[in-house]
Automatic annotation (TrEMBL):
Pfam family membership, one: Na_H_antiporter
Top-level division of the source organism's lineage: Bacteria
Cell compartments where the protein resides: Cell membrane
GO terms, molecular function: antiporter activity
PANTHER family: MALATE-2H(+)/NA(+)-LACTATE ANTIPORTER, NA+_H+ ANTIPORTER
First-listed, main subcellular location of the protein, grouped into a coarse class: membrane
KW Signal (keyword) present: no
Provenance organism: Vibrio sinensis
Alphabetized UniProt keyword annotations: Antiport, Cell membrane, Membrane, Transmembrane, Transmembrane helix, Transport
Name of protein: Na+/H+ antiporter NhaC family protein
Transmembrane annotation, as ranges: 7-27, 33-51, 72-97, 117-143, 194-215, 235-267, 288-307, 327-348, 368-386, 406-426
Lineage: Bacteria, Pseudomonadati, Pseudomonadota, Gammaproteobacteria, Vibrionales
Entry GO CC: plasma membrane
Protein family (similarity comment): Belongs to the NhaC Na(+)/H(+) (TC 2.A.35) antiporter family.
Length: 442
């Protein structure tokens, strides 16, 4: 039975966005409302509603909620989130993050401090799959570079945030990348190919701009600490395994195994402590995993109530082409990211709608996954009330708003994303072993 279009079917997500926004204005901090609490309140709203001209029992609504929460895509995403958390914890415990930072610093020429900082942040965020981890690790170094070289702290930290968002957008183990590919049922490496070609010009332009802006100041030599190349092995293993097309769960398991083996061999932890670290890392991702399940249930109820159908028809009525559908997807995920300050949640929420639009307008799902991630990451790098900005601004004792004008990379990937839509690049043919309809219906 086709669901009747109903604007009020979107009430759960509207209530969620209102809660986030109102609490942000009242408290002055848009992260004051816990996301899990906001989504639980939205769930209560969803369970209290009914489809247009129809009444469902609470048991029927709970069945829909649980069935959609237990969708194979959502459950697999949860497993991947937990494994990613375990990987973060293990590599942090063996000193791999510090060693990677110091290794990168050892390669920097004093003439290219800021561009070196940007590229190191790109490498680390791509390796560990988290912008926050990268930004927090490098923020003290960025501040030191600014103070010793004479560039402003705002420029140094804006450059750092851009490098951190590079990994959020492209890393094989980033939760945003995982969410994008899983919601569209595409291969990680296929999304990577689309994504890289779109953002590569933004990387190059950022390097040029940052270099030009720092040319007129005195350069200082910033030396990193000691590093052990062996500790880079877990990251390199993850990158190589993913590039070879190995399943993301297997990739993470291999990375965890290598990290655990190194930690045991260099006495970073005992066997029992290793298990504790694994549990700790998975604990870091539990909220995100639960939110992913809840979002799946809420979207399922909104679909049953006709809200998704109303949204699709409203967007579709204004869309006359594939290009228009892509602009609509970009607008949707961008709006959700600005409202939630969480690019992963924005992608998880927008993903099912984007997939329906993709099926309707015959879009390549690999391209949809790329656009979802690009626009979510771009706006995440420009909202001054986001976690990335709040973390570095606190360390540097400056206003987060003052950093935004120097976040060149997030601005540029949004520009490149719009240009990509306008000119329809890049385009990759469907593999000969796959029919077009098969990949579009995944």
């Amino acid at each position: 039975m086709k669901n009747k279009p109903n604007f009020w079917g979107l009430s759960p997500i509207i209530i969620f966005l209102v809660l986030i926004t109102v609490c942000g204005f009242i408290t002055g901090g848009f992260t004051s409302m816990p996301l899990l609490v906001a989504f639980m309140l939205a769930t209560i709203c969803a369970l209290a509603m009914n489809p247009k001209d129809e009444k469902l029992s609470l048991s029927e609504k709970l069945d829909i909620f649980c069935r959609e929460s237990g969708d194979a895509t959502i459950v697999l995403m949860v497993i991947v989130f937990l494994l990613a958390g375990a990987f973060y914890s293990i590599v942090g415990s063996i000193g791999a993050v510090e060693s990677t930072v110091n290794f990168g610093l050892s390669l920097i020429s004093s003439d290219y401090l800021l561009v070196g900082l940007f590229l190191i942040a790109c490498f680390i965020s791509f390796s560990i799959g988290t912008s926050m981890g990268t930004i927090v690790a490098l923020a003290p170094i960025a501040i030191e570079i600014a103070d010793q070289s004479g560039v402003s702290r705002e420029l140094a930290l804006g450059t750092l945030i851009g490098g951190g968002l590079f990994g959020d957008n492209l890393s094989f183990i980033s939760d945003t990348t995982i969410a994008a590919v899983r919601t569209q049922s595409v291969e990680m490496r296929d999304k990577f190919k689309f994504n890289l070609l779109i953002v590569l010009p933004a990387v190059i332009i950022t390097c040029v701009v940052v270099t030009l802006m720092s040319m007129q100041v005195n350069k200082a030599i910033i030396e990193g600490g000691e590093f052990d190349l062996l500790l880079l092995l877990p990251y390199l293993t993850v990158i190589v395994s993913a590039l070879l097309g190995i399943n993301v769960i297997a990739v993470l398991c291999i990375g965890i195994f290598v990290g655990c083996l190194i930690g045991l061999l260099n006495n970073s932890f005992t066997l029992v402590e290793m298990f504790t670290k694994l549990q700790q890392g998975m604990g870091w991702m539990q909220d995100l995993a639960i939110i992913a399940l809840i979002v799946g249930g809420i979207v399922g109820l909104m679909n049953r109530y006709g809200g998704i159908q109303w949204l699709l028809e409203s967007i579709s009525n204004r869309i006359k082409s594939k290009r228009g559908a892509e602009y609509g997807i970009a607008f949707l995920v961008s709006t959700l990211d600005v409202a939630t300050t969480n690019n992963t949640i924005a992608i998880v929420t927008a993903g099912p709608i984007a997939k329906k639009l993709g099926n309707q307008f015959d879009l390549d799902p690999r391209r949809i996954a790329s656009l979802l991630d690009i626009f979510a990451a771009g706006f995440q790098g420009l909202i001054p009330y986001g976690g990335q900005y709040l973390a570095v601004a606190g360390l540097a004792a400056i206003s987060p708003i003052a950093i935004v004008p120097y976040a060149f990379y997030p601005m540029l990937i949004l520009v490149m994303g719009l240009i990509s839509i306008a000119f329809g690049f890049p385009k990759f043919p469907i593999k000969q072993t796959e029919s077009k309809q098969a990949i579009l219906n995944q």
